[in-house]
Amino acid sequence: MSNMKGKTVVITGATKGIGKAAAEKFAQNGVNVALTFKICTKWCKCCFYIQL
Question: Is the dihedral of CA 45, 50, 51, 52 positive or negative?
């Protein structure tokens, strides 16, 4: 994943499950992450958790 540092990915369904796990891993490895989701109340928790 080091060759993706500085690149941008879009994660759908980023508030739970595989989408959340993928967003966390990408963010931890220096990848810019754009999150999409259906439920806005979960957005703040998710972004805070992965510290975007």
Answer: negative
